[in-house]
Specification:
Helix content is 43%, strand content 18%. The chain contains seven helices and six strands, in the order H-E-H-E-H-E-E-H-E-H-E-H-H. Strands 1, 2, 3, 4, 5 and 6 form a six-stranded mixed β-sheet that branches. It starts with a helix and ends with a helix.
Length: 185
């Protein structure tokens, strides 16, 4: 039984934090930028941990639309479902000057956030290799990655998917984070 549980956990880590077949992992010494949007702080926490582990630059995408409050919660979900873009603050760093850009987004109503959709649309021609951090209540990253590929036209080098229960379990969180970092080195 113990081996079955470990096998299932290992499979979960491999699905959400390793390189795609045929892709080469990013070598150490590459210039890396971690770009994220976070409303509640969850995606920010993971993005900071990734940036720290990779010695990467870190940028927060700022949505100019007010997304606070009861009604904003519903309109934000509607915007995400409608695959809408939004107005974002310009980032001081140019993604084109990096070897890898790691993009972090929470999942809203089964979709990437409007702020990250906007960032990807604005920078799709400037992005070098990409990787993703996907945080969600229950939606697996495998359901979100195709939308990212559709926008950028690029397969990610790797992705890290974390759902609510994994974010609360420090052992699982550290294991998945470590696997993702290893895939990017």
């Amino acid at each position: 039984m113990k081996h079955l549980i470990l096998g299932v956990l290992a499979g979960a880590v491999l699905c959400s934090g390793t390189s795609f077949a045929g892709e080469t992992a990013v070598a150490q010494g590459k210039k890396i930028l971690v770009v994220y949007y976070s409303k509640t702080g969850t995606t920010e926490r993971v993005s900071r941990d990734v940036a720290s582990a990779l010695n990467a630059d870190l940028e927060r995408v700022v949505d100019r639309k007010n997304r606070n409050g009861f009604f904003a919660f519903f309109s934000s979900g509607k915007d995400a479902m409608g695959k809408k873009q939004t107005s974002i603050e310009p980032l001081p760093r140019d993604p084109a000057s990096y070897d890898l850009v790691v993009v972090g987004t929470p999942v809203w109503a089964g979709n990437i956030t409007p702020a990250i959709r906007t960032f990807l649309m604005m920078n799709k021609d400037k992005l070098p290799d990409v990787a993703y951090i996907i945080t969600a209540a229950h939606t697996p990253a495998e359901k979100i990655i195709p939308a990212c590929i559709d926008i950028t036209g690029k397969k990610p080098v790797a992705y890290l998917g974390l759902v609510k229960k994994e974010l609360k379990d420090n052992k699982v969180y550290r294991w998945k984070l470590s696997s993702f970092i290893d895939a990017l080195k």
